């Protein structure tokens, strides 16, 4: 029994564990460099040579620029208003350590900086000193359209193809609207990825190491049955799904929850009924979910077991009704109200009026023990 359940859990959880590991690796790996800079500090752009640009998070104290060549806009479909959100300016990248190795590149800034940037442009061409403006952001490569406008700017001022290739670099400084918000996002995304990765590995290790059976052993111990009795009961239990992950025996009801095997002592079950959920999207029916709800003394808020169709749900309830006569089977608003408001009276319907010994089901006759 235990080895069989261990294999079933590994089979059912392996796919999602691998998905978690892949997602975690992707999310953590993709955001690791940014999270590192967010935690340890950004690189000063003026310390980087053109060949050092690799998508780092950087800071700059900008005192000159050579004009705006591109605007980024957004269109509001409700108000039909187009507004400018960001502006692309030409700046000069020159390493402090090697000022002769310079290149023109781009800085993309939120539109709220337009006045400062335009004044800086005017001062640059008039050889006047501007007050520095601090920016923090991420280095990115210009896409094909952005690069086309970038090249057009220099072509219009008479720069040849060779001169353009020699004196420019196709990167832009994407200035953040809020450095703090971006730092939080990068660290959060990396942390989420790391958690997903660890959780995926933990799920597999838990199953392989037998940890997925710990709760089942506790369930058995709490029921008062020996493990040998439960193993025999499990072998003879009836399955209500293809994978055998939901089974009803005479002593216990067995199921798999995530990466854990669990069991409910049938002697503690109070109520069972079918719950059918119809799913709709924009008023159109998209599917139906069939659930069997089971309420027991240990979990009075209930268990929800999803089955393939209504026929299986009814077969499971029929077996419970026939074999476990102390269980109220079926739903009504009156039963729900009684269960929630007057539990002792609800238990008098069957639970407290019957001996909690499973009835024989071979004859197909239901045991009688009060009527709800």
Order of helices and strands: HEEEEEHEHHEHHHEEEEEEEHEHH
How far the N terminus sits from the C terminus, by CA atoms, comes to: 36 Å
- Rounded to an integer, what's the Rg over CA atoms? 34 Å
Biggest sheet, in brief?
Answer: 7 strands, mixed
Shape: elongated
Low-confidence segments: none
Please state the average pLDDT score. 90
Largest sheet, spatial ordering of strands: 1-2-6-7-5-4-3
SS-based structural class? alpha+beta
Query: In which range does the helix fraction lie?
Result: 40-55%
Please report the number of helical segments.
10
Beta-strand content estimate: 25-35%
User: Tally of extended strands?
Assistant: 15
What this model shows, in words?
By secondary structure, this protein is α+β, with helices and mostly antiparallel strands. Helix content is 40%, strand content 29%. The protein has ten helices and 15 strands. It has helices spanning 2-40, 114-125, 144-156, 161-167, 179-208, 214-223, 227-236, 310-323, 333-341, 343-347, and strands spanning 43-44, 57-62, 68-76, 81-94, 102-110, 133-141, 168-175, 238-239, 246-248, 252-257, 260-265, 269-281, 284-296, 303-307, 328-329. The protein has a seven-stranded mixed β-sheet, with helices on both faces. A four-stranded antiparallel β-sheet has the order 8-9-10-11, with helices on both faces. A hairpin with a 6-residue loop joins β8 (238-239) and β9 (246-248). The longest helix is centred in the N-terminal third of the chain and has 39 residues, at 2-40. The model has no long low-confidence stretch (mean pLDDT 90).
């Amino acid at each position: 029994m235990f080895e069989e359940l261990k294999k079933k859990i590994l089979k059912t959880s392996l796919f999602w564990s691998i998905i978690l590991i892949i997602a975690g690796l992707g999310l953590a790996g993709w955001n690791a460099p940014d999270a590192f800079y967010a935690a340890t500090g950004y690189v000063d752009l003026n310390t980087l040579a053109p060949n050092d640009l690799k998508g780092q998070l950087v800071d700059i104290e900008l005192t000159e620029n050579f004009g705006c060549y591109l605007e980024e806009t957004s269109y509001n479909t409700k108000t039909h208003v187009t507004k400018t959100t960001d502006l692309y300016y030409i700046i000069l990248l020159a390493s402090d350590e090697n000022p002769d190795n310079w290149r023109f590149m781009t800085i993309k800034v939120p539109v709220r900086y337009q006045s400062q940037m335009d004044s800086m442009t005017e001062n640059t061409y008039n050889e006047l000193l501007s007050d520095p403006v601090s920016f923090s952001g991420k280095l990115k490569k210009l896409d094909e359209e952005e690069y086309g406008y970038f090249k057009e700017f220099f072509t219009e001022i008479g720069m040849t193809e060779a001169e353009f290739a020699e004196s420019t670099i196709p990167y832009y400084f994407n200035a953040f609207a809020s450095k703090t918000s971006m730092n939080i996002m990068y660290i959060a995304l990396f942390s989420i990825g790391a958690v997903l990765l660890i959780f995926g590995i933990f799920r597999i290790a838990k199953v392989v190491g037998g940890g997925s059976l710990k709760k089942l052993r506790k369930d058995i111990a709490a029921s008062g049955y020996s493990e040998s009795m439960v193993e025999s009961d499990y072998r003879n239990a009836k399955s209500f799904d293809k994978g055998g992950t939901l089974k009803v025996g005479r002593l216990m009801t067995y199921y798999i929850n995530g990466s854990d095997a669990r069991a409910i002592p049938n002697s503690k079950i109070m109520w069972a009924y079918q719950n059918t959920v119809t799913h709709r999207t924009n008023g159109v029916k998209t599917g139906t979910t069939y659930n069997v709800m089971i309420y027991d003394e240990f979990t009075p808020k209930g268990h929800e077991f999803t089955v393939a169709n209504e026929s299986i749900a009814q077969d499971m309830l029929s077996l419970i009704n026939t074999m476990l006569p102390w269980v109220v089977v079926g739903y009504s608003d009156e039963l729900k109200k009684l269960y929630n408001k007057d539990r002792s009276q609800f238990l008098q319907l069957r639970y407290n009026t019957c001996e909690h010994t499973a009835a024989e089901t071979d004859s197909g006759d239901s045991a009688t023990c009060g009527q709800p």
